[in-house]
Amino acid sequence: IDMIDESAKEVRSISHNMMPNMLIKSGLAKAIREFVDKISSSGKLKVELEIIGLDKPINKTTESFLFRILQELINNIIKHSQANFVSIQLVRHDNEITLMVEDNGKGFNYNKAMQQDGAGIKNIISRVAFLNGNVNFDSTLDKGTTVVIEFPV
After folding, report:
1. What is the DSSP string of 89-149?
2. Long-range pairs for 140-144 at CB < 8 Å and ≥24 separation?
3. Less CB within 10 Å around the terminal CB: N or C of the chain?
4. How, if at all, do strands 85-92 and 46-52 pair?
């Protein structure tokens, strides 16, 4: 439990240190790569990252929301899932961006999580809604979680 608490504090610290300056200076793809490198270098979570099609800039508000969504997803994984591996795919298509985050953790009951006081999933849902997107949480107890987010650009 102490390690989980420390990991969550570390992710929050990284999140606050990187936003918004890293995003403003380097753009979304580089900010995400640096965020993932810091998480991976801690040794607590192995992260595989694939970014496709983000060579063209997107709206700064969209970049900011997307970065915060990813931070929240990773924070939730570290804090709750007991995962040791995460796969992140971020793909820009012609008219849409897709973010898929998969972990090998313990999974969770989505309906039960929505009834609890925590704001993590609710923050993700509200940010995705702001981007006029869709989010799907697919989680199976003891088999991990996949989150797929799609929104127009």
Report:
1. EEEE-SSEEEEEEEE-S----HHHHHHSS--HHHHHHHHHHHTT-EEEEEEETTTEEEEEE
2. 140/107, 141/106, 141/107, 141/108, 141/109, 142/106, 142/107, 143/107, 144/81, 144/83, 144/102, 144/103, 144/104, 144/105, 144/106, 144/107
3. N
4. parallel
- Over residues 12-47, the pLDDT tens digits come to 666 655 555 777 778 899 989 999 998 999 888 999
Instruction: Fill in the amino acid letter for 119.
Output: A
The model carries a pTM of 0.85
Residues 6+ positions from 36 with CB-CB distance below 8 Å: 47, 49, 88
Strands 134-140 and 96-103: unpaired
Structure tokens at 77: 């994984």
**Residue 16 one-letter amino acid:** H
